[in-house]
Design goal:
The complex is a heterodimer of chains A (about 230) and B (about 350). By secondary structure, chain A is mainly alpha-helical. In chain A, about 65% of the residues lie in helices and about 0% in strands. Chains A and B meet through helix 9 of A and helix 6 and helix 7 of B.
Chain lengths: ~230, ~350
Amino acid sequence: MSVDYRKITLDGLWHNNPALVQLLGLCPLLAVTASVVNAMGLGLASTLVLVSSNLTVSLFRKLVPETVRLPIFVMIIASFVTAIELVMQALTYELYLILGIFIPLIVTNCAIMGRADAFAVKNPVRASVLDGLMMGIGFTVVLVLLGGMRELLGTGALFSNMHLLFGEAARNWELTVLTDYPGFLFAILPPGAFVGLGLLIALKNVIDARAEKRRRMLQKPTELTGSKRVRITG
Amino acid sequence: MSLIRMSSPHVYKTNTTANVMRLVLLATLPGIIAMTVFFGWGTLIQLVWAGALAVAFEAIILKIRRRPLGFYLSDGSALVTALLLAVAIPPFAPWWVTAVGIFVAIVIAKHLYGGLGQNPFNPAMVAYALLLISFPVEMTRWSAPFVLNGEGWPVASFFDTLGAIFGSVDSVWYDSFTGATPLDELRHRGGLTNEEAWRQSVVLSEGIGAWHAVSAAWLMGGIFLLYRKIITWHAPISMLLALAICSAMFYGYDPDNYAGPFFHLSTGATMLAAFFIITDPVSSATSNRGRIIFGAGIGVLIFIIRTWGNYPDGVAFAVLLMNLAAPFIDIYSQPRSYGHSKANKGQGGKA
């Protein structure tokens, strides 16, 4: 069975993006994206879990009986989440406290379970790892975009508290875009996340529609010449 | 174009949307005049600013959506939305609060849902709720009625008000022209009983007259709309009755802790909501029976939010919650069409 690595990559990043198209894992997506650092922290953790669980599920795919596959997947995912949680507790303790319940809740992220059941269990190891990585990156990019939008609108600054994730060197990365900004609480509160995600999905649909239209426009002339009636008399 | 305001059987009306909106604007005149008299120039400045913004945003979004500009702009619905928001926010609210509110009302709550006639929520109330949770300081700094400020007509001068809205003034200025509303005062009275609160607070004992007068002015406008048959009596009357019955029950049970029906009916945004907000033809229930249920739900919710909620007034949240319930109410309150013994639910009703 040949594996189309290019298609896997594009699917994860764009065509079948877990956050924008599959709409999976919305709970953490909406809950923790109040700032870039929170979004990036949860995105990286989810990506790590996704890659490792896809790898493991794919390795054991021939040993797992069909009937009990879901409990087994949950156990695999839960052990990786626990490991990641301990790593975060050790390396980025403050971020671990901020993200709180949403780190253990990665277990229930449907995107991870979905990829294990829809892809990893049917595909070889290398393709599964790539799929996990690309889905994870696609998820993280949307998380960071949404976090950036909400942080900028809500507080007028970007990349504040990045030292929670990248150590002391990142403490002065904060970018004050709007000085003397009164703050816009709505963007930080959960309703702002829903509106923000809606706008991102709309943006993706607009880009897709434009691309489709351009593709059609380029194809049209060839179609026309193909259907032209051939002159047979005279 | 005319908005069809009934479910079937349809009765043709020559009333165009533009006509309806013009009469609604006319009916708000007494309320606007009363607010200007009691709270100063702020209301008028907000009205002009909000109206200009609403027309501008409407024109831009119509251009983007490639809709005919003149046709939609001349129906005046953007102006009505702007007006409702402008009288709902505090008269001294800074210019950007109004701007954010109008943007949310016109672009997000109205046009992203498909424009006039398609919005499930009342745009002005969406904007108000968003402003209230986003800018608590600016949105709770309501002007004090002039009767509390001293002799004569001591409201902030026109240019001072203009400066407060478009520039910045120090907080001392605000202190001399703003104050708690009666609903705030009753909400944050601590452990006092109603009677004690009334005796101690000037806002309640003297300032409340201003709120009674403003409510009476909105009621006048509402009666005009009823007389011209722009709105039906169902939603307003059932909302006011529900609010009065709820408050009367609790007031009768424990007059020390609960405010009486007259207080609830004549303060805050009760009258404005009853005649101008919940009668919005788009986001409310459509049949007469549906409107009664819709209005009663809002009345009960206003009482609940005012009495036990975090905010002193609950009109916006009550209206939004019942907007959510309106399609559901419509399914269960379909009128019987002529010739049928029961309402014909069609295929949609079975689900």
